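Q: Hi! Curious about what Acyltransferase 3 domain-containing protein looks like structurally. Here's the sequence.
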Amino acid sequence: MAADLLAARPDPRRAGSARLCDLVRADPARALALAAARRSRHAHRPRASRGVADARGLAAARDQHRQFQLLRRLDRARRRPRPAARPRPPPRRARGVAMTVAARTLWIDVAKAFAIFFVVFGHVWRGIHDAGLLADARVFAAVDNAIYLFHMPLFFFLSGLTFSGTRHAWPDFLRRLGRSIVLPYVIWSVALVAVKQGAGGTVNHPVGFADLLGIAYAPISPFWFFYALFLIQITARLCLPRVGLAGTLALAILGFLAHFLNPNPGTPIDFALEFLPYFALGLLFQPLRARPPRVGPAGALTAGLLFLGPPLLCLGWSIGYETLPGRIAAVPMILAASAFCLWFAGTAAGSAWPIVMAGRATLAIYCLHIFFTGTTRAVLMKLGVVDVWPQLLVATLLGMIAPIMIQRAATRFGVVGWLGFPPLPAAPNLRAA
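A: Let's find out. The predicted structure is below.
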């Protein structure tokens, strides 16, 4: 390349300089080597006399100076650190398009809030009835059957939908179970017995310290949920790696049928067999977590009608929620509730942070609401408030709001782990969803 540059005519230095400049733009490393070779070659050349210096020498000097400036600028640019790339702002979500990533996960929190609301309402409803404040037995049975037809199956479905036990080794899996299930089970079983012992005869269902000694095999109501979920997750961790999802579904159906043949219902194993199919149904729908289907207003309306259908059919045909047809009727209600929550998360999530907070505080609400609903009922009765609607409204609101405030305060002061709950952050910003 150097020989070609020197052989150019009629102005070898000027032509070579122009080609070298082009080479700098195309291949900087090769241009540096070529410039160094030219400097060393010109250094051994004898100096021309003063009379020979003419316009060609001045042009060559200017070209050489330009080459030097270009190479120095190139070297500085190579050594200068590159500026950090500016983060791109998130794209705005247009109305009517598919959900964002945040909305894809928020719908699970919305569904948890939906389920825990009916858990609290159902316990308040039963407490009012047991206290003798609700005289109409038919109304009580219809509402009670509609609530218990789906709310606990929905919880087990969501637990299966978010199950990730097979991704962890057994020690880590058991450690997670101990922190999320066993610890709150023990803490709040002890707390419930202590509070009921202190309340004396004002409680509807008294328990003693002898019941506390048997929580290893006989959970205190309503903490049977923790015991059953513990057994179900152990079963899923054992079965999924060995027989796969299809085998786990088959075992769940067999266990479900065995539950109705069990002559001794009400044990933790019996509860686990009863609700294992809903957990397996959640496992089946796990692939839809990353890419859930889009639900529009028409789909939400259809889901609402489908949700109301099974309770009305069970009411018309006198089907109880604990029967085989009643447990099967819970499946379309679960799917309809999930579809409605998908629509809600995709349209109104930006203004629904209280609902999302309730969904993220489900564990605290489940463990603590009993203390507030029972106390509220007793206080209102002492004050002479025996009407059903004030009792329902005040007790349900306190049962939902007070546990959230306690978990949030415990998170702020760093003692939430002592209560057996996960940290609860402040109100989330859901505008991007």
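A: A fun detail: The chain has three domains: 1-31, 100-162+289-433, 168-196+208-281.
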